[in-house]
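Design a sequence for this backbone.
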């Protein structure tokens, strides 16, 4: 077997992969490039492409991400007539939703990028090949996990397909989860820690990232013992910690924060035809020209913050607030009074004085998420003291690294009743990770824990079209079902 050098060609994940449009529909799992790599430098380039999948440019102006990760939740209020967006919010979705179709296509292309790395390194047997493989397998698990959360049963891709394999049936969620867990266990065993990677490789996934994702996977499966065990490993390792400044975590300077376990930062690049930060693009202030603002934080989300919670001021921009360095009058569309402050920063930081070009960070996984998983799983296992300690760490940071006695806000939680503490943990999770792509998937799993929980929320908000059995998963895009000639079948509740 050949030996493989590990070639570092990127500092801190400064990725420059191209971003192509979705002009053609390709079979799931089809190669994203016609180039078959054969040397070490090209293997590294292939791995860079895997990492570039989490650069916000690739979410095609946010359409796929927001439609499937945010619009169904109770955290947003819609401000658009685009039926592909509003149908997700109204639960009138259909298998022809173009944004969901693009997600299915793109995520399978990402999976193939991961498998391409594994294929290219198959002829090598040294530790550097293992290092490549562990990164590729982490991302393969990440994209499969996201697909399962969005669709349920999906097509499993564990290798680069031969032409005869482009059209294959779905696998069960259990089969997909088995691969997800196997990949993450491999990654956790072989990836370096953040400290071992060193500053030259900040932004790479780490041992802690893989352990954290395992904790999240098991939490979503209500396997609290394993969720607790993996979260505990992350907490006790010291590899990551809470950033002392909650607000700055979402600035571009926060992309390599000690809390950011899987950075999702967007660094503006002047690419022809793609002149806007896709995460900022659809947010902003309605009616102001500062962002398209097709959705904003909902009243329900805003009201879920406790009185005096500093995270509210750091997360929610209110009508009447001003932006440092911006001298124009900020206009608001009637009926809207909030915006996501995580995408609103001083005008002096806007490239070319353009709101749409802001550079910012939105971690795909951060240490606060792991603390919340630790708290929730501990509570479910009857270890309320552990849960309370984890919650206090978050609230201590939220108060500005002060105790309740010092800050006078966010009283320390002391409730030990499992059901009551569960509700407090879920509430803490909502405000801590507001509009970070977690709430909808949380609502889906909460109904499994407390029957009727999410259904009642939607009914109380007047969103009476919601039917958990049907709407907890999206339909498989009709284009791919039709093109499969009966091989790929629709989700049963969408037939």
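Sequence:
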């Amino acid at each position: 077997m050949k030996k493989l050098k590990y070639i570092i060609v990127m500092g801190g994940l400064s990725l420059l992969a191209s971003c192509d449009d979705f002009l053609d529909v390709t079979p799931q799992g089809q190669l994203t490039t016609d180039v078959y790599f054969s040397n070490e430098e090209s293997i590294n380039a292939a791995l860079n492409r895997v990492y570039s999948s989490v650069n916000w440019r690739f979410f095609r102006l946010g359409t796929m991400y927001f439609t499937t990760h945010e619009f169904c939740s109770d955290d947003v209020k819609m401000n658009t007539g685009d039926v592909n967006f509003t149908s997700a919010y109204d639960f009138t979705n259909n298998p022809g939703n173009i944004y969901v179709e693009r997600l299915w296509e793109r995520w399978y292309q990402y999976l193939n990028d991961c498998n391409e790395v594994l294929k290219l390194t198959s002829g090598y047997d040294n530790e550097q090949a293992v290092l490549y493989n562990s990164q590729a397998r982490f991302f393969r698990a990440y994209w499969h996990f996201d697909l399962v959360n969005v669709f349920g049963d999906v097509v499993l891709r564990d290798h680069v397909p031969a032409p005869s394999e482009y059209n294959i049936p779905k696998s069960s969620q259990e089969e997909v989860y088995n691969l997800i867990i196997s990949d993450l266990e491999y990654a956790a065993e072989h990836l370096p820690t953040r400290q071992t990677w060193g500053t030259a490789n900040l932004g790479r996934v780490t041992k802690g990232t893989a352990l954290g994702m395992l904790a999240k996977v098991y939490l979503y499966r209500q396997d609290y013992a394993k969720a607790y065990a993996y979260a505990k490993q992350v907490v006790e390792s010291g590899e990551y910690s809470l950033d002392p400044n909650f607000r700055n975590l979402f600035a571009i300077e926060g992309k390599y924060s000690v809390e950011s376990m899987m950075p999702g930062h967007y660094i503006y690049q002047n690419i022809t035809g793609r002149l806007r930060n896709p995460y900022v693009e659809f947010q902003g202030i309605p009616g102001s020209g500062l962002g398209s603002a097709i959705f904003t934080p909902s009243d329900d989300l805003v009201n879920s913050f406790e009185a005096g919670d500093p995270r509210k001021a750091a997360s929610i921009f209110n009508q009447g607030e001003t932006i440092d360095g911006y001298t124009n009058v900020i206009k608001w569309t009637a009926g809207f009074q909030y915006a996501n402050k995580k995408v609103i920063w001083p005008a002096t930081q806007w490239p070319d004085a353009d709101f749409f070009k802001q550079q910012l960070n939105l971690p795909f996984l951060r240490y606060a998420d792991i603390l919340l998983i630790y708290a929730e799983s501990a509570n479910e296992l009857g270890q309320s003291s552990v849960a309370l300690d984890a919650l206090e760490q978050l609230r201590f940071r939220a108060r500005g690294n002060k105790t309740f006695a010092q800050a006078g806000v966010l009283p320390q939680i002391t409730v030990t009743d499992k059901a009551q503490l569960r509700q407090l943990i879920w509430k803490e999770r909502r405000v801590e990770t507001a509009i970070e792509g977690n709430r909808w998937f949380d609502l889906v799993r909460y109904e499994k824990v407390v029957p009727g929980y999410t259904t009642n929320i939607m009914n109380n908000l007047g969103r009476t079209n919601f039917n958990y059995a049907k709407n907890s998963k999206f339909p498989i895009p009709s284009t791919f079902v039709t093109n499969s000639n009966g091989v790929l079948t629709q989700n049963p509740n969408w037939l």
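The chain is about 45% helix and 5% strand.
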